[in-house]
């Protein structure tokens, strides 16, 4: 037991590596705060456009969404970071990670929101139009509020995945939380920084997990 505590629960090493972990935490939060809002806005735009009946608009968007949902985020990230420079485009670690996460996250948000939009009964937009609301008013005041409410658990779940996804940025040496924890581990030859990083991830995401469970239970209760 003493060996386990020394290897994984060393308070002295946790304190000594706290400054590295703090830097990584800040980078992780910045990535999430950049990716989630921009990805949601991109997803909303794609979802609205993909519901259009015009095929030359809808099908390319559906293909775009399917492609970035299907391609593994790690493969996409490595291509953007290591592949684009051969074409004369060097985004750097931050640019490659931000763009890769934005494309992946935006595609998932788009599919979720599209499903939410299609779950709104068609008679409601038609009734709103008959009452004199303009098209943009119908979307803002009738369709989107109901669409978001219908898929809110899925939106929160996807947001959780985005925060966890930031850990793969370590493969391009972006100093996010996992990368910094591994750096501290290599310096101290001890796994305590990795365990501390795991605890930090848990503390960040657990409130959202509880909120997600409550929303799912509420939806299930509403269907009974």
Automatic annotation (TrEMBL):
Locations listed in the record: Cell inner membrane; Cell membrane
PANTHER family: L-CYSTINE TRANSPORT SYSTEM PERMEASE PROTEIN TCYL (PTHR30614:SF0), MEMBRANE COMPONENT OF AMINO ACID ABC TRANSPORTER (PTHR30614)
Domain ABC transmembrane type-1: from-to ranges: 25-213
Topological relation to the membrane, as annotated: Multi-pass membrane protein
Protein name: Amino acid ABC transporter permease
Keywords for the protein's UniProt record, in alphabetical order: Amino-acid transport, Cell membrane, Membrane, Transmembrane, Transmembrane helix, Transport
InterPro entries per the UniProt record, alphabetical: AA_ABC_transptr_permease_3TM (IPR010065), ArtM/GltK/GlnP/TcyL/YhdX-like (IPR043429), MetI-like (IPR000515), MetI-like_sf (IPR035906)
One matching Pfam family: BPD_transp_1
Top-level taxon in the UniProt lineage: Bacteria
Species, as recorded: Falsiroseomonas selenitidurans
Keyword NAD in record: no
Family statement drawn from the similarity comment of this UniProt entry: Belongs to the binding-protein-dependent transport system permease family. HisMQ subfamily.
Transmembrane segments: 20-49, 61-81, 93-110, 187-206
């Amino acid at each position: 037991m003493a060996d386990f505590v020394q290897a994984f629960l060393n308070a002295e090493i946790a304190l000594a590596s706290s400054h590295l972990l703090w830097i990584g935490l800040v980078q992780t939060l910045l990535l999430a705060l950049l990716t989630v809002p921009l990805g949601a806005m991109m997803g909303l735009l794609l979802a609205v456009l993909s519901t259009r009946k015009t095929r030359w608009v809808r099908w390319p968007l559906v293909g775009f969404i399917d492609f970035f949902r299907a391609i593994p985020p790690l493969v996409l990230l490595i291509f953007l970071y290591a592949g684009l420079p051969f074409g004369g485009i060097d985004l750097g670690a931050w640019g490659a990670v931000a763009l890769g996460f934005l494309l992946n996250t935006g595609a998932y948000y788009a599919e979720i929101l599209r499903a939410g939009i299609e779950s709104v009964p068609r008679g409601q937009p038609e009734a709103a139009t008959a009452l004199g609301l303009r098209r943009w008013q119908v979307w803002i005041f009738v369709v989107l509020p109901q669409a978001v409410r219908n898929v809110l658990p899925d939106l929160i779940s996807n947001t959780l995945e985005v925060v966890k996804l930031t850990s793969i940025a370590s493969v391009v040496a972006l100093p996010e939380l996992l990368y910094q924890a591994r750096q501290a581990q290599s310096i101290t030859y001890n796994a305590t920084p990795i365990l501390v990083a795991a605890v930090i991830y848990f503390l960040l995401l657990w409130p959202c997990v509880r909120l997600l469970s409550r929303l799912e239970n509420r939806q299930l209760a509403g269907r009974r």
